[in-house]
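User: Is it possible to get a 3D structure for a protein together with its bound compound? The compound here is pyridoxal-5'-phosphate. I've pasted both below.
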Amino acid sequence: MELARRVAHMCGTGGNGWELLIRARGMIAAGEPVTMLSIGEPDHKTDPMILAAMAQSAASGHTGYTEIQGIRALREEIAARVTARTGVPTGPEHVLVTPGGQAALFTAHQLLLDPGDAGLFIAPYYATYPGTIRAAGAEAREVVALPQDGFQPKAAAIRAAAPGAKTLLINSPNNPTGVVYTPETIADIAAACEAEDLWLISDEVYETQVWEGPALSPRALPGMAERTVVLGSLSKSHAMTGSRIGWMIAPEAVVQAGFELALNSTYGVPGFIQDAALFALRRGASFEAAVAAPFRRRREIVRRVLGQVPGLRLIPPSGAMYAMLDIRETGLSGAAFASRLLDEEKICVMPGESFGAPAAGHLRIALTLEDAALEAALIRLRDFAAALLR
Ligand code: PLP
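Assistant: Yes, that's possible. Here is the predicted structure of the complex:
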C-alpha cells in the first residue's frame, strides 16, 4: 500500500543539521552533561495563575465543542490588542484562533496558495517555513537576507524572486537571527508586496521580545491590512508553548475560509485553553514584560561575553530569544564548529546551515538557559573559538 506523495513533497530533501540535536539528546539520555543552547522555548513554565484559570474553566464545564473560529471574547481581546498595536481598526471578524502559531502559518498558506504557485520566504528561516509552504502544493522559494545587510531583507531580492509567487512570509523579531526588521525594511517589504501583488504573511510570534525597536507590524502601513495576514501566538509571550494557542489576523474573507479549513481539520481549540489565553492576555503588558525579562537580561550577557571577541562577530541581537554568531574566521563551517563544540565542550548550539545557506558559518545560540549557566557556557564557547582562531 502506498502513501500519498503530499507529505514526502512537504518534507523536501531535509538533512540540514538537525542530526546534531538528535545526537545531543542521545548523549543526555546516556547520562552526559550536555548544555543545551539550542531550544527555542522559554525555560520557565506557564504561570500558575494561567493554569488555575485553565483548570477553573475546565471544571466549570468548558470542555465541550466550542466556537470553531474561537470564542468571541478571546477574538475581541486579540482584535483590541492588534488595533492598539497597529492603529488599524481590527474586529473579532478578522481573527481566527488556531492551535498555536504553527497552525496559523499552515492555515495562512493553505488559504492563499494553490498547487503550482510559489510562496516566498526569507532565508535564514525558521525550520518549518519551507515545509509549510510546500504542504499547500506550492513551490517554496527562498529570498536571501545577507549577513552583511544585518539579515535585513532587501526589496530588490524580493522583487527578483516574485514572478509566479503569491505570498511572502516574513518574521520579525526573527528566529533564527535575533534581528528586528527596521521600519525602513518593513516599508520596503510592503512596497514590494504592493508592486508585485503579493500577500504578506507576517509572523509576529516574538512581538513581545523587542530589545531595540521599534518593531513595526506591516498591518499598520496604509493599504496593507487588506493584503497582510498577521500570525500571533502565546507560546513565547506567555510561556504557553504546550497549550497550543495562537491566531491569524486577516481580511474577513480569509478568516471565513480559515473557518472552513478548521471545520474540516482541527474543529477549533479547546474552550478551557481559550479561556486561559483570555485570562493571560488580560494580564496585560507588565506580565508580558516579566516573561520577556530573562531574555532581555541574557542578551546583555551574550553581548558582554561575545560582543568584543576578535575573530567572532555577534549579529546585534535586537529581539527574540536568540543570538547569531559569525564564526567564519575560525575556518570551520557552522556545522563543523557546532559538532566539535558538542563533542569537546558538551555544548549544543544550532549550526547556521540548518536555517539556510545565508546563515552558513554562523551559530544560533538560544538564550533559553538560566543566566549563570548561560554565561558559563558562553565563556567556554568563546574560549573554544579563541583556541581555533590562534
Ligand atoms: N514562528 C516562529 C518564527 C517560531 O520560532 C515558532 C516556534 O518556535 C513558531 C512560529 C511556532 O510557534 P507556536 O506554534 O508554538 O506558536
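Residues 40, 100-102, 126, 171, 175, 203, 205, 233, 235, 241, 246 surround pyridoxal-5'-phosphate (CB under 6 Å). The mean pLDDT is 96.
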